[in-house]
Amino acid sequence: MPIPKAELHLHIEGTLEPELAFTLAARNGLALPYADAEELRARYRFQDLQSFLDLYYELMAVLRTEEDFTDLAEAYLARAAAQGVRHAEIFFDPQAHLARGVPMGTVVAGLARALDRAPERHGVTTRLILCFLRDASPESAAETLAAARPYLDHITGVGLDSAEAGNPPSLFRAVYEEAARLGLRRVAHAGEEGPAAYVREALDVLGVERIDHGLRSVEDPALVERLVRARVPLTVCPLSNVRLRAVDVLSAHPLRAMLEAGLVVTVNSDDPAYFGGYAEDNLRAAADALRLGEDQVRLLARNSFEASFLDDAEDLRAAYLAEVEAYTF
Ligand code: HPA
Ligand SMILES: [Zn+2]
Predict the structure, then answer these.
(1) Is 306 an annotated catalytic residue?
(2) Is the CB of 192 under 6 A from ligand 1?
């Protein structure tokens, strides 16, 4: 059994496996411009973040009904549970669905149906995080948050994703202020392709509690010192970083150096259907390539629960942490 862990950086649309994409396309009377799942999978060679995003947005067009979103989340939760995930904080991209005429209520209700039964069915607890697309306008982000108002019982926080370079966090100051007023937790992707300065902006302007990726923080020693001192978690995604060429090869990934610098890093799968592995696959691959010791793997698992938004369920967090300490390799 893999070590118990929380997954804190996971885009539900990025769990759409080619086979399920074909199933949903057929169910909705849509045609995909690929002969079969194998031909589609052969397209999963990316030059950078944008080349991945192009396919990611194209393929998620098969998601149309509440049932589609339930089936998508159900498939992820089953796979995650098998990989030792006990708690998942799941991103979704409503603007990409709203743009296709799929209402917010359809997306949230569909996801919530799978998430609500996951503790019983899979032994996995969850939170839902609404992401704004940073390559759409701040006005569109504000409209999206307004559209989510009736569903905030299901939503724990907001995030910021999509094409990073040239779309700094500071553009989204107002909508993050509104999210804070609504009692939502705040995270943002920063320092994946964008500079360390975007990590600073996410902290200072958006008030985020965690940084998603944060890889390029290592270019700025004063920022690293600040992240260590304030114990700001970084949700690192090793296989994603290799596939999107943020790092050349896994053995050159800064994860080990980040851990040794005292950063609160966690290991996550980002878009596992596209990047070649789920949570435990990422942890194993990173541990092997970087020769992480058992103590370091246990620390990563501990970090994942400590960095989670389980502040409203401290007993549960304590129980998960106890499982991590009791785990034998
Ligand atoms: O890795 C990512 N980075 C930015 N946006 C995204 N949207 C899905 N996955 C990603
Ligand atoms: Zn991501």
Answers:
(1) no
(2) yes
